[in-house]
Design brief:
Blueprint: H1 2-8, H2 18-22, H3 29-37, H4 41-52, H5 55-61, H6 65-69, H7 81-91, E1 108-112, H8 116-127, E2 131-135, H9 145-148, H10 151-161, E3 168-170, E4 185-188, E5 210-212, H11 221-241, H12 278-285, H13 295-299, H14 301-306, H15 310-321, H16 334-337, H17 345-349, H18 356-370, H19 376-388, E6 395-397, E7 407-410, H20 413-418, H21 420-433, E8 437-441, H22 446-451, H23 454-470, E9 475-478, H24 481-490, E10 496-498, H25 499-506, E11 518-522, H26 531-543, E12 547-548, H27 572-583, E13 590-592, H28 595-603, E14 608-610, H29 611-616, H30 628-647, E15 661-663, H31 666-674, H32 679-692, E16 696-698, E17 703-710, E18 713-722, E19 725-734
Parallel strand pairs: 1-2, 1-4, 2-3, 4-5, 7-8, 7-9, 9-10, 11-12, 11-13, 13-14, 15-19
Antiparallel strand pairs: 6-8, 16-17, 17-18, 18-19
Helix pairs in contact: 3-4, 3-12, 4-7, 5-7, 7-12, 8-11, 15-18, 21-30
């Protein structure tokens, strides 16, 4: 975890924009542009004024170092920040400075030099209510400004900015000896070739309280203004702490942006040649990208939904894992941790290769080991995995007549749960191509991985390794990209290929003719590192007669359909929003090669094929996915079918004998499915209520109520007795345990 934290701390989110780094004032251009883009010229002007002190002077003289580093300059033309700053002055309703009623400070500051750098320093210190005296050897303030700009502009600006401030101005006063002055601090800003009192170079530090800056130190006019503002902070720091620290301006930023996909935006030229109209200012401001490293926010559903960058996430996760609050409450990020889809897109788009998914997975494991992660987030999926790997659905067989195999088909747990025909037809194809192909029906352990249950996950992995070894260490054939991803990560000794690659090479006859129908391939997020597989799927799709229209996010940038991490219980609203976003990428039917993607999109009424639907002619794009109850039943059916067809064996599941019929209307069945409630659990509750007598009758409706805890979950049902059994009226579940005590003899 510490290495992951170190990596997160390299995040570039807090790095300055290129223009801000180049600006002598460290002007927060992103903040300024954001206000102008929204037409908030008053707020934009105030931000500008607070940064530069003399907005009229700076907007007139600025040499625009920001233009040299603007990335738009490499595409179509740098943003005209100076003209936008001028527009904020022109279109702000009020440009006079704020008047702050602060108490006077009993500290005296001397400013030697009435040029613009000295005035900038004096302005800031006056605003903080220090006693400031300015000494100017000539008969006027402004210094070199008289030579480079109209006097009415800078004199009016200086007058306006000092309108609420009090200071002492001593004109025609040349300071020869600093020792004659009795002040708490002194700023020497005597201009180019001005008197330095022998303090230039390293000697300055030997005179406590004396600071040199501006043109005296070789700065240009804009840098000199910024110098005065910065040194005002240093003077205040010196008065408070005695430290002579004068921080240097850092003109560097680690920010990285890729401009390859940057859309062209023509620069706005002022219609009058020198200043923007209000509309022109808005148009030019909207060209600005407000450069920021926010790829994770732009691409990652989770970080965008919660609007949290890696460093904030790291802090909140740390507070969750190691709570330091007085009440010991460490639940601040438990839901966030459990909402990560583990899709890997964050690392793909991050210029620092920060893998927040891996960090959150490790955090999940720590929380699970501490018993701090709500079990309900993953209880259903772990029970589902347990059933898949149980005697009711699991199969591990060598083909008839073989003592070892060169290939091993591992279709994954969800393919057959959606429809047994997917696995039956695939295995039949493989036996024709590779007759010694063995078969494993089971789960790769992803639910345990996503639940953070390391011990349970290790057991699943070890069981798979033992099967593989007993088969003679064959090459694995995968139909599911997630399964291959899990094998690559935890069983790297097992070489694997995809079923679809073999089908393309074998020139298998394709059952569906697309007849030019336009479709889009939806790449599962687990295929991100499988470019060859992505290419094969497109080749098979085109070979089937379909025309391809690419999605905006595919290949290396493949999005998660919402299934990864199995987050639907931890954050159902988030899951629904992700699904909506995926299916709205375009109006074409999708073709995918992950059955979870197919079934999730189909449940949302999106036309979608699994690639095997096309290759084997199994279903059209509108097939309704099975319910959670049907998915479990389909696994049992699949085991029965493969044993019967390929091993000539009969298999009958040891079912609990039901003594009644249970009638569930379709709308209620949809509710049970959406809440991941199995019909077998509902049957068990009713049977318990009827056999034990633990039920409550509503005399007004004739309905019975009862409950039963199954595993960790308590299920409640409302039902009515009818001639042929029972009608289910309602049902729900929760994680509450009910202590029924010893009343009524313990019944």
């Amino acid at each position: 975890m510490e290495e992951a934290r170190k990596k997160i701390r390299t995040c570039l989110e807090d790095q300055e924009a290129f223009c801000t780094a180049a600006c002598p004032f460290d002007f927060d251009v992103r903040n300024f542009i954001d206000k102008i883009q929204r037409g908030r010229f008053n707020a934009g002007f105030r931000a500008y004024q607070n940064s530069v002190a003399f907005p009229g002077i700076v907007s007139y003289l600025c040499h625009e170092p920001c233009k040299d580093v603007c990335i738009r300059g490499k595409k179509d033309g740098a943003i005209s920040i100076r003209l936008l700053e001028k527009a904020s002055i022109d279109y702000a309703a009020r440009i006079s400075p704020n008047n702050y009623n602060l108490p006077l400070k009993n500290k005296k500051i001397a400013v030697i030099g009435g040029g613009i750098s000295g005035l900038a320093c004096a302005l800031r210190l006056c605003a903080k209510k220090y006693e400031v005296t300015i000494y100017e050897k000539s008969h006027r303030i402004g210094g070199s400004l008289w030579d480079i700009m109209p006097s009415d502009i800078f004199l009016n600006d200086i007058k306006q900015q000092f309108m609420y401030e009090e200071y002492k101005l001593c004109l025609n006063t040349e300071i020869i000896n600093l020792g004659e002055l009795e002040f708490d601090a002194i700023y020497v800003a005597t201009g180019t070739n001005g008197r330095d009192f022998g303090l230039k170079g390293n000697k300055a530090g030997k005179s406590p309280g004396v600071f040199l800056g501006g043109s005296l130190m070789g700065k240009n006019i804009i840098e000199a203004i910024a110098d005065g503002l910065n040194i005002s902070k240093s003077i205040e720091g010196y008065i408070k702490t005695g430290s002579m620290n004068t921080p240097k301006k850092n003109n560097e930023t680690r920010l990285q942006l890729d401009i390859k996909e940057l859309p062209y935006a023509k620069p706005v030229i002022p219609s009058n040649g020198s200043a923007f109209t209000r509309d022109e200012a808005l148009q030019e401001a909207k060209r600005c990208l407000k450069c920021k490293c926010d790829n994770c926010i732009q691409y990652c559903d989770l970080m965008r939904s919660f609007n949290k960058y890696p460093k904030i996430i790291e802090n909140e996760v740390e507070a969750t894992i190691n709570p330091g609050t007085l009440d010991g409450n460490g639940t601040i990020a438990t839901r966030f941790i459990s909402t990560c889809n583990q899709c890997g897109l964050c690392k793909e788009v991050c210029p620092q290769d920060i893998d927040m998914g891996d960090f959150l997975l490790k955090s999940h494991r720590i929380m699970q080991q501490k018993g701090g992660m709500p079990w309900v987030f993953h209880d259903f999926w772990l029970r589902d995995m347990e059933f898949t790997n149980s005697k009711y659905a699991q199969v591990s067989r060598l083909p008839m007549g073989y003592e070892k195999s060169s290939y091993m088909f591992f279709p994954g747990c969800q393919l057959g749960a959606s429809d047994s025909k997917y696995v039956i037809e695939s295995y039949n194809f493989l036996l024709k191509e590779k007759p010694d192909t063995s078969l494993i029906l089971g789960c790769c352990g992803a639910p345990a991985e996503w639940a953070g249950d390391k011990d349970l996950h290790n057991k699943v992995i070890e069981k798979l390794r033992n099967y593989w070894t007993s088969f003679g260490k064959p090459k694995a054939i995968f139909a599911c990209p997630t399964c291959k991803q899990m094998f690559n990560r935890y069983l790297p000794e097992i070489e694997g290929v995809f079923l679809y690659d073999l089908m393309l090479k074998s020139k298998v006859p394709i059952s569906v003719d697309g007849s030019g129908e336009i479709v889009s391939v939806f790449d599962p997020c687990s295929s991100r590192e499988e470019p060859h597989l992505q290419k094969v799927i497109r080749q098979l799709t085109q070979k089937s007669g379909f025309s391809l229209n690419p999605l905006p996010m595919e290949g290396k940038l493949a999005n998660c359909c919402s299934w990864g991490g199995q987050v639907s219980i931890a954050n159902p609203y988030y899951t629904r929003q992700v699904v909506k976003k995926r299916i709205r990428q375009n109006d074409n039917p999708y073709i995918t090669y992950c059955i979870n993607c197919r079934d999730i999109f189909a449940a949302a009424k999106k036309p979608v094929y699994h690639i095997l639907d096309i290759l084997f002619g199994l279903h059209d794009s509108g097939r309704i996915p099975p319910t959670v109850t049907k998915r479990r039943n389909n696994r049992v059916i699949l085991k029965q079918q493969v044993l019967s067809r390929f091993w000539k064996e009969d298999f009958k599941m040891e079912e609990r004998e039901m003594k009644f019929n249970l009638n569930i209307i379709p709308q209620l069945g949809e509710k049970l499915d959406s809440e991941l409630i199995l019909e077998t659990d509902i049957e068990a509750v009713i049977e318990h209520c009827e056999s034990s007598g633990k039920k409550v009758l509503n005399p007004n409706t004739g309905n019975f109520f009862g409950h039963l805890q199954i595993g960790n979950m308590t299920y409640w049902v409302e039902y009515k007795s009818v001639d042929n059994g029972f009608n289910l009226v309602n049902a729900y579940s929760h994680r509450m345990s009910i202590d029924e005590g010893e009343r009524d003899g313990g019944r």
